[in-house]
Write a structure and sequence with these properties.
Elements (H helix, E strand, L loop, with lengths): L1 H5 L26 E8 L5 E8 L8 H5 L6 E3 L5 E3 L9 H5 L6 E3 L4 E3 L5 H5 L23
Antiparallel strand pairs: 1-2, 3-4, 5-6
Length: 146
């Protein structure tokens, strides 16, 4: 919810599909997903395996390499792969360039969206990513300055 609120995205209703997971995958306005998978242990008991599914902010981002629009996707020195919505031309090449299926097309806006790792929060030295509350130094980018 904090991610949706910070980025001005609207909440989408979900339906119960007999899982703890709220939806099957990320969407154009929902960039963070915890995937739940049941795993049977050797003793026959079950356990839940959880995995955070969101943009990996890759060192060599396929979405950036595939994007023909100037400055629609940029990578900063601190490693954040940011998305500039105003520069997106809606071609969808970044979608095919991402091996993690993260950028998503909005049919209403006719543009592609993805996680920006709260770049606007980084500039304001706020908790990263948007969270309520975040433990101290939960996410640290760049050098750890003491």
């Amino acid at each position: 919810m904090a991610c949706l609120e910070w980025n001005g995205n609207t909440f989408s209703e979900t339906t119960f599909d007999n899982s703890y997971q709220t939806m099957p995958e990320t969407s154009w306005n929902y960039w963070n997903l915890i995937k739940f998978n049941e795993h049977e242990r050797e003793d026959g008991s079950m356990m839940l395996l959880m995995r955070k599914d969101q943009c990996m902010h890759c060192e060599d981002p396929g979405c950036l390499a595939a994007c023909p629009a100037e400055a629609a996707i940029v990578q900063y020195a601190n490693g954040i792969v940011d998305f500039q919505e105003a520069n997106c031309i809606g071609c969808g090449y970044c979608i095919t360039g991402c091996p993690f299926n993260i950028p998503k097309f909005s049919p209403t806006a006719r543009k592609v969206f993805k996680c920006t790792l709260c770049m606007t929060r980084v500039g304001r030295a706020l908790n990263l990513p948007a969270s309520k509350p975040a433990p101290p130094a939960a996410c640290i980018l760049g050098r750890n300055r003491r």
